[in-house]
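quick q for whoever's on today - can somebody do inverse folding on this one?? i tried earlier but teh output was garbage lol. tokens:
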């Protein structure tokens, strides 16, 4: 019903083995997945980078360090120094933008993880590369709709804000 009301298209993967290929083909604007999918993406990125040339590994490692600092401050609503904003912009332009294109995440405005708890390191990793990944817990499944996820993501969402007790969604 939400697809008809808001004019969205809902796509499904062909099989669990083809998730990455399907994401490249679809290039969604909003995506949802279980924690295992996000962990698989993160480990796949790290494995591919370990097989890269030493120069690419060093550039990725430096960019990821900058991205992790940036994401840590942003997710905790702390001020981001100008030098870090500039360094992150350079890292995003040099590494993360192309990485997101190759993963099929170049158009993603919000990514949602649900059905089980996800590691804070995985959430921070994806936010560091410029993919706004947020988490919902099993307790909230009945109350969290795709629309509420998009609305929450468009605001600044703290790393664990959806997983905290006492949170409430109203429509």
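ok took a stab at it. sequence:
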């Amino acid at each position: 019903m939400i697809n008809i009301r808001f004019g969205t298209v809902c796509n499904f993967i062909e099989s669990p083995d083809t998730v990455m290929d399907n994401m490249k083909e679809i290039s969604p604007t909003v995506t949802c997945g279980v924690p295992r999918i996000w962990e698989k993406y993160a480990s796949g990125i790290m494995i591919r980078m370990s097989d890269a040339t030493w120069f690419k590994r060093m550039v990725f490692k430096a960019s990821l360090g900058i991205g992790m600092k940036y994401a840590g401050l942003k997710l905790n609503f702390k001020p981001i120094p100008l030098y870090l904003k500039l360094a992150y912009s350079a890292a995003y332009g040099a590494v993360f933008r192309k990485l997101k294109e190759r993963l099929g995440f170049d158009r993603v405005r919000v990514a949602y993880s649900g059905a089980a708890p996800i590691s804070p390191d995985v959430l921070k990793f994806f936010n560091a590369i410029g993919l706004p990944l947020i988490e919902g817990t099993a307790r909230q499944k009945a109350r969290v709709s795709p629309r509420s996820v998009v609305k929450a993501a468009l605001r600044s969402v703290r790393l664990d804000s959806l997983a905290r007790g006492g949170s409430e969604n109203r429509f």
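fwiw Residues 21-139+146-154 form one domain. also The longest helix spans residues 54-75. so keep that in mind when u check it
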